[in-house]
Amino acid sequence: MLSEKRDDLYDNTTVDPVYHAKARVLNTAIQDIGMGRYQYYLFVCAGFGWFADSVWPLITGLILAPVIAEFKFNGPFLSFAANVGLLIGAIVWGVGSDVWGRKWSFNVTLLIAGVFGLSAGGSPNFITLASLLAVVGVGVGGNMPVDSAVFLDLIPASHQYLLTVMSLFWSLGQLLISLLAWPLIANFSCSPSASICSRADNMGWRYLLFILGALTLILSFIRFFAFNLLESPRFLVGIGKDQGAVDVIHQIAAYNSTTTTLSVEDLICVEKRATEDSSAMRPMLSKTSIFTSAHVNALFATRKMAISTSLLITVWGIIGLASTLYNSFLPFLLASRGAQFNDGSLYLTYRNQVILSVVGVPGAFLAGWAVEVPYLGRKGTLAISSGLTGAFLFASTTARSSKQLLGWNCGYVFFSNIMYGVLYAISPETFPAKDRGTGNALVSTATRVFGVIAPVIALYANLETSVPVYISGALIIFAGLLALLLPFEPRGKASM
């Protein structure tokens, strides 16, 4: 079945005209093949990356209380170590996917997270735990930059909205980790009043790491052994491998039990035409594994591209700071505020975390619908969801009981999941495929840098007051307003 045709997001004055011409041919071929079995399998396997990007950054907040009780350290240092790893992973795997391709990055990131996550459960001290979780972050940090690029490169333009719906895996990851943490940490942790906390009395957080590490390993094995990821055809034409790109299109068609008429001659023909129409030299991605500045330069090559890239980096950085500052210490905040309301037990704290995770799941579906609504699109959905996320954060400071606090946080989680679903989609949709990994790396680096800064702020901030909440809410609302200034709206357009 043929899918609807869509206009290009860019014209040939925004990106290299030869690349633009070839990308149009590839987009048409993928569109004519339609959404089939291969793309649905890819949706699930790429969703594993969203799942990992959800559970592992959250783990430091969920295990913080019992780990502090056992190892006696200043809590924000654990989040700091994990975020340093996430920062390194975003840079290495994002940029690397534009140099050596998507396939190896796609398969290796989850493997690293699974191996070192499983090992972290056996940590004898804080230094070992922090170091292992940092390495987990190196693997997890590459998932969003690589997986979103892989998915967009291989699906029809008419189904790009599924990249927003993929945040469902992020929400399910939150739900699963909360369901696991609730009984494990509530029942297998030291008493909050205990002066000495031994390993034998505090196994809950270790069980949690063992389970998540093993599950991540299983997901990586499914990716590697049960699904054959094909290289991005747009990446291949970017390094001069036109025949390889055509072969990939034909393999997808065969897997979907259909056919395509695409040939190398089609690509050669449009290249000649574009070359005749433009005196610009054709930029190459890289034919070696050498990192260069070419991909970064391409994202700032024109005024419109420079504005778009700069705004996306700013929005990601602001939301990264605000959300990390709040989310990393949410269980602590729930427990400390709950203690003020005489119901701050571990059981109630983690029960509330489960409730919050359940509330977030419908947000993925609402986001997928909203981004396709005319006059709303990606930018409008991102702005509105960011504004409401910040508003519910402000409202949470008015809570005078644990139930009120839980209610306000339900609103925050629901709209923040929509916000993240759109944010994770609009960035890769906006960047051209030949530089998409690098663009994703830049925005991810921005949010990871501020993710590193957030625990440092927490070291010197008074978490017993509402100041961090006010700061987080104001920053998120501001980021939503900036989103309205983005020059490109991907709704109804084919990503290039």
UniProtKB/TrEMBL annotation:
It comes from Mycena belliarum. Belongs to the major facilitator superfamily. PANTHER family: SYNAPTIC VESICLE GLYCOPROTEIN 2 (PTHR23511), TRANSPORTER, PUTATIVE (AFU_ORTHOLOGUE AFUA_7G01740)-RELATED (PTHR23511:SF12). The keyword Cell inner membrane does not apply. One of its GO terms (cellular component) is membrane. It is a multi-pass membrane protein. The lineage of its organism: Eukaryota, Fungi, Dikarya, Basidiomycota, Agaricomycotina. Keywords: Membrane, Transmembrane, Transmembrane helix, Transport. InterPro entries: MFS_dom, MFS_sugar_transport-like, MFS_trans_sf. The keyword Disulfide bond does not apply. GO terms for molecular function: transmembrane transporter activity. It is found in: Membrane. Its main location: membrane. This is MFS general substrate transporter.
